[in-house]
Specification:
- By secondary structure, this protein is mostly beta strands.
- Helix content is 0%, strand content 57%.
- The protein is built from no helices and eleven strands.
- The chain has strands spanning 3-6, 9-12, 17-23, 32-38, 45-51, 56-58, 66-71, 76-81, 90-100, 102-107, 111-116.
- Strands 2, 4, 5, 6, 9, 10 and 11 form a seven-stranded mixed sheet that branches. A four-stranded antiparallel sheet has the order 1-3-8-7, with no helix packed on it.
- It is globular and about 45 Å long.
């Protein structure tokens, strides 16, 4: 499964962006879909995830501002980011996990989000 993240860019603080992650295969069978972010010199951190049952999980720093969603028909999932802050600046990566007896973990190449003051 290949993942292609898009939608990053430059936005002013307080603005919004929507990231998309298009999968080459079905996402309906993924056990979990997620968005992570990383800044240079720091570890990659989970931003938001959604399980196959629809349970969502968000980093405390984005709760109430970011929303993860999925469109199984389009094999695409999204991260709606509102009220962006300068500290949200990072490269964002999408991730899909499949349980096919063993766990298979797929990553997109990332899309850069820059929030300016």
């Amino acid at each position: 499964v290949q993942l292609q993240a898009s939608g990053g860019g430059l936005v002013q603080a307080g603005g919004s962006l929507r990231l998309s992650c298009a999968a080459s295969g079905s996402i309906s069978s993924a056990s979990a879909l997620g968005w992570y972010r990383q800044v240079p010199g720091k570890e990659r951190e989970l931003v938001a995830s959604v399980t196959s049952r629809g349970y969502t999980n968000y980093a405390d720093s984005v709760k109430g501002r970011f929303t993860i969603s999925r469109d199984n028909a389009k094999n695409t999932f999204y991260l709606q980011m509102n009220s962006l802050k300068i500290e949200d600046t990072a490269r964002y990566y999408c991730n899909a996990v499949y349980d096919w007896g063993a766990e298979y973990d797929y990553w997109g190449k990332g899309t850069l989000v820059t929030v300016s003051s």
